[in-house]
Amino acid sequence: MNIRDIIPSIVLDTLRDRYLAGVADAEAVFEMHRADEDAVTGALGQSIATRDPIFFTTERGQFAAKISYRKIRGRGPGAPERVYGADGIFQIEVINSSGDIVRSKGLPFQSKTNWRGKKKDLFEQATKMQGHFGGGIVIDFTESGYRACTAQAAISARGSRPAVERERSMHALGQMLSRDFLDCTIGTTGLFFDPANEAFALQALGQGAHLISTEIVEVR
Question: Which of 49, 64, 122, 202 has the greatest number of beta carbons closer than 10 A?
């Protein structure tokens, strides 16, 4: 089913604009956070997040959309990044007026700052993401912009940034989130995080990542 069969275009278009603007705002303050990868990711989440829900009245009913950010445990004994390759997840949920989730999709990611050359650890992390979730993305935070490629592209390149570039597999992060993720051409169906229980729906992620969540709620 096409995502536009579930979510009205006006809602999707607003979320696209928010993703694009949020990534651009985060890129603008990269220098303030570049010393710590977690801080860079946190700034991205805060830039994308909406303080309050955005309400829409459409011919298909009323909807409320909210993008939120939550930092959860990612360090210390048993950190799942070492096992599963992902250090965070983007999430989108569509909830009907009864509170039932009618569409849920998650996009695991591994983030790097100034990815250069060939990284064996990144190849291994991308391979783990692909194996556990069937996909994911690798984000590269740099002063010249935030770009990303699929986990599969990083695997094919054996963790080599020059090889990924040669294959033209790096794309602007804002475009990847606002287009590919919202259109559901990337991401894993059913992969989501339950904030009430502080647990991932798929045990593979366990606890310990960043969560950047988009919730779309039908409120009619």
Answer: 122
